[in-house]
Design a protein that fits this description.
237 residues, five-stranded mixed barrel, three-stranded antiparallel β-sheet
């Protein structure tokens, strides 16, 4: 299959043989594809290599015959965003989640648009912990996994004045407000309505969301969890 000038986000790259790169891209119309970019590691190809860095938004042409295709053309798509520090690490984590949780070569424009939006948010001023929790939540829901923060374990509605302990396997169980790691009903309702909850709630939600992700990944946990540490602490813009 030959594809011409397909919009794509670079998820991952690694060295391949002596002068090439192996890329993982999330394309708009063909899902996740693996491509070899041949002969790009020479001194004269620094501009091309810059285009193929993770988090870059590009358009590509490629030939796909099997699981691993060949890149035949690449051009950057504006705007070119500057993402560094903690925000870069968070972006690499979002890419890793997509690679580990999502099927390959399965067209998913909604996923592509959500990751593209997250890339823009990483270059903006949205609090980083909230940005990451939103993406984790949206990806879990998009893939059809259980969402144990949206209702109590017995199926009743969340009450704003109550407090709950969240279990990835069960859902929400009523708890006392003074217990560590519990979530208030108002924080849960804010989270479900896409409003940023309190900072303590973001820490508890991190544990819950990571528990759900771990249930579906088994032993193949994201390496980024060890690298970025606790993203629920306050972050500078």
């Amino acid at each position: 299959m030959r594809v011409e000038w397909q919009p794509a986000l670079v998820l991952h790259k690694r060295a391949y043989r002596e002068t090439s790169l192996q890329l993982e891209l999330l394309t708009r119309d063909h899902g996740i594809v693996g491509l070899v970019a041949k002969g790009v590691t020479g001194a004269k190809n620094h501009v091309l290599r810059a285009q193929l860095q993770p988090l870059q938004h590009i358009k590509v042409s490629f030939l796909l015959k099997s699981e691993l295709g060949t890149l035949t053309g690449s051009e950057p798509l504006p705007p070119v965003l500057a993402i560094a520090g903690d925000r870069l690490m968070a972006g690499l984590y979002l890419n890793e989640l997509v690679l580990k949780l999502c099927p390959r070569q399965d067209a998913d424009n909604e996923l592509y648009q959500r990751l593209l939006a997250a890339r823009s948010e990483l270059a903006g001023s949205m609090p980083l912990a909230w940005l990451v929790r939103r993406f984790e939540r949206d990806l879990i829901q998009h893939l059809g996994y259980m969402t144990p923060w949206s209702a109590t374990a017995n199926g009743t509605d969340i009450e704003p004045e109550r407090h709950y302990r969240a279990y990835p396997e069960l859902g929400l169980i009523p708890a006392k407000a003074e217990e560590p790691g519990v979530l208030s009903g108002i924080d849960l309702l804010d989270f479900n309505a896409d409003r940023m909850p309190s900072l303590p709630a973001l820490g508890a939600l991190r544990q819950l969301l990571h528990g759900v992700i771990a249930m579906h990944l088994g032993k193949s946990l994201p390496r980024s969890w060890q690298m970025i540490g606790e993203l629920s602490r306050p972050m500078k813009p």
